[in-house]
Design brief:
The complex is a heterodimer of chains A (309) and B (309). Chain A contains six helices and 17 strands. Chain A has 309 residues and is α/β, with parallel strands linked by helices. Chain A folds into two domains: 2-232, 3-Layer(aba) Sandwich (Aminopeptidase), CATH 3.40.630; 235-308, OB fold (Dihydrolipoamide Acetyltransferase, E2P) (Beta Barrel), CATH 2.40.50. In chain A, the strands form two sheets. In chain A, strands 1, 2, 3, 4, 5, 6, 7, 8, 9, 10, 12, 15 and 17 form a 13-stranded mixed beta sheet that branches. Chain A has a four-stranded antiparallel beta sheet with strand order 14-13-11-16, with no helix packed on it. In chain A, helix 1 (46-60) packs across helix 6 (199-215). Chain A is globular. Chain A starts with a strand and ends with a strand. The model of chain A has no long low-confidence stretch (mean pLDDT 96). In chain B, helix 1 links the parallel strand 3 (28-36) and strand 4. In chain B, the strands form three sheets. A nine-stranded mixed beta sheet of chain B has the order 1-2-4-3-5-9-7-8-10, sandwiched between helices. In chain B, strands 6, 11, 13, 16 and 18 form a five-stranded antiparallel beta sheet that branches. In chain B, helix 1 (42-60) packs across helix 6. Classes of the chains: A alpha/beta (309), B alpha/beta (309). The interface between A and B is large, with 40 and 40 residues.
């Protein structure tokens, strides 16, 4: 069943509606509920495949479904439609306006209604795709404030890596923070890259979602075995590699591999002069879990992240 | 007057990114004024350019007090202004959401760190700020309630209003907030416009800052005394929101006094021209902010009214 979570009338002959696909058991079932949200950032599309594939697999065997699965594929439809990360017309990052306000402007009102609709969930996944600049291994990011509650769920999600990061005031405006503080355990998934779909990662996460559904007694069908993720809980375990100069970054390695300190990662070149400006090497030994995908870099642009071994 | 490059990044195909400062007088770091940080803040840049011109004249007349140094940064983001993009050119991040910055971090973190390093020790800090929604404000001084705010000092600008508001999570990464945390008496000055230039409002802002400098004994200047500022808590400003979308036809203007029940605006259908809604004032007061775009969404705060006592 397709439901409208919230809708607002636009100035010229259009209604903006946030919709969800509610999938319920054929008969009976329990009151458990899993919610899948994606598309808060309009340029992150990896979650689109996950939403489709999850529905498709459930509908292949509806007899195994014992609880409710709610799929919200487009929290920011304007952004998805216009290849825009934020909310067009407002130049606003939607993941900085939660929990919103029912008395606020159009975007705050939409954010508040989304939160209201999600608050009865037993578990929520907010699926992101890094951004258009970086490719990420499938990972879950957890605010240290919510570590104890979220880590057991995150371990079942069939992702490669769990990153428990420090609390930050700015992150208090995210969907995940708002839900976690409202007693809805919410996992933030980051995987792949903006503007693209990595089917392999999508399938990996869908397997994890079925495992979580099993854990919540929402799914009684067979479930594949899930990966044991690497877990990082200390800030000093993650090394950041930022561009030392502006130029064009030529990537010579892929994410998801182990590198040694000093290993060649790529080069920053100047196509005008035809010279290499800087060889880029690994700053530490460990797992290269993030790599830059978008070639144009300013001094300071993030090139890679390494989980130090 | 000395013109210095405070921060610089070498680019690949563009001229170097430079943050330029204009220094008047010498001695203690007395007062720093920052203009545009976003690509659409033309009025903020314009007001600073007028201030640089005025201070040059005062310096030639030896009217800058001995031992006092004034720094003006008209623009902390020339790259975005020059291509008419609101936020940072490559990754769309906001320099005014990156303070206090990080010199080894991403590009806008480095810019914020470079700027903050140059200005963090000033006794007084003023930023020409802008609002993200299109509209006209009455000129005012805005301060965050951080526990460090000094309301009596804010009144010394002689602007009509001093507005106090509680910081929201994302405010903690703004220049104003960090200035206050580092011990600077920080103020945000709002003139009437952002992208459009208002000569009279820029003149009023420049006069207010000269008035303030004079009262702090930084310059020898007989300023117009200005207004006896009314101090308003942000919570006491009444937002009047649209219930529908359409063409926005105001029947009043910023600065006008209105009575409870008086007509503020009409909304008409964008296809048929039919009247869709009328917006009336819920209180007696003064129009402090008015939306000025031709069309409006529903739930938009189109007026902000300061209630009459």
């Amino acid at each position: 069943m397709i439901d409208t979570v919230v809708q607002v009338e636009l100035p010229v002959d259009e209604t903006l509606a946030i919709k969800k696909h509610r999938i319920t058991p054929q008969s009976g079932g329990n009151r458990k509920r899993l919610s899948i949200v994606t598309g808060i950032h309009g340029d992150e599309l990896e979650g689109q495949y996950v939403c489709y594939e999850l529905s498709r697999r459930i509908n292949e065997h509806p007899e195994y479904l014992k609880g409710t699965v709610d799929i919200y594929p487009a929290a920011n439809p304007f952004g998805i439609d216009s290849i825009t990360r934020g909310i067009p017309a407002f130049d606003l990052d939607m993941n900085r306006i939660f929990p919103g306000s029912t008395n606020g402007d159009m975007n705050e009102y939409i954010a508040a209604e989304i939160i209201k609709d999600l608050t009865q969930s037993d578990l929520c996944l907010d699926i992101h795709a890094s951004n258009i600049y970086l490719t990420e291994m499938p990972q879950i990011r957890i605010n240290e404030l919510h570590r104890d509650r979220l880590l057991p769920y995150a371990k079942l999600a069939n992702i490669d890596f769990i990153w428990v990061h420090g609390a930050s005031t700015v992150l208090e405006s995210t969907l995940a923070y708002s839900l976690n503080t409202r007693d809805v355990p919410t996992l933030v998934v980051e995987m792949g890259v903006g503007m693209r779909i990595t089917k392999e990662y999508g399938n990996q996460l869908v397997t994890g979602i079925f495992r979580l559904m099993q854990e919540l007694s929402i799914w009684e069908g067979p479930v594949d075995e899930v990966k044991q993720p690497i877990i990082s809980e200390k800030p000093e375990e993650v090394a950041f590699l930022n561009a030392p100069v502006s130029g064009i970054f030529i990537k010579d390695t892929c994410h998801g591999i182990y590198v040694k300190k000093g290993d060649h990662i790529g080069s920053i070149v100047d196509p005008l002069a035809g010279i290499c400006l800087q060889n880029i090497t690994a700053p530490a030994t460990g797992l290269l879990f993030t790599i830059r995908e978008y070639p144009v870099v300013d001094e300071g642009s993030l090139l890679a992240r390494i989980l130090i071994k | 007057m000395e013109r210095n490059t405070l921060f610089e990044i070498k680019a690949l195909y563009r001229d170097n990114f430079r943050v330029t400062g204009f220094t008047f007088g010498s001695g203690d770091d007395s007062i720093c004024i920052v203009g545009s940080m976003r690509g659409n803040e033309n009025q903020q840049l314009y007001a600073c350019s007028k201030l640089v011109k005025k201070l040059s004249e005062l310096e030639q007349e030896r009217r800058i007090r001995s031992g006092k140094k004034i720094l003006i940064i008209p623009c902390a983001n020339p790259y975005s202004v020059n291509i008419r993009k609101r936020f940072w050119t490559i990754d769309n991040t906001d320099i005014n959401r990156m303070f206090p910055g990080y010199s080894l971090g991403e590009t806008t973190q480095r810019i914020s760190a470079g700027v903050f390093e140059a200005i963090k020790n000033y006794k007084y800090g003023i930023q020409f700020a802008s609002f993200y929604m299109p509209g006209i404000f009455l000129p005012h001084v805005r301060m965050m309630k951080t526990g460090y705010e000094n309301i009596d000092l804010a009144k010394e600008f002689g602007l009509p209003y001093v507005v106090l508001h509680n910081p929201r999570p994302f405010d903690t990464t703004t220049l104003n907030y960090n200035w206050q945390v580092w011990g600077t008496n920080a103020f945000s000055i709002y003139t009437t416009t952002t992208a459009a230039i208002s000569e009279s409002s820029a003149d009023q802002a420049v006069e207010a800052i000269l008035n303030f400098m004079s009262k702090q004994d930084i310059i020898d200047y007989r300023a117009d005394e200005g207004y006896i500022s009314k101090v308003v808590d942000g919570h006491d400003i009444i937002s009047v929101r649209t219930k529908k979308s359409g063409f926005f036809m105001p029947e009043t203007a910023a600065g006008k006094k209105v009575k409870k029940g008086s007509l503020l605006a009409k909304l008409t259908d964008t296809y048929t021209g039919e009247l869709k809604d009328e917006i009336y004032s819920p209180v007696n007061g003064t129009i402090f902010f008015m939306h000025d775009a031709p069309m409006v969404y529903s739930n938009t705060a189109v007026f902000k009214i300061i209630q009459a006592e």
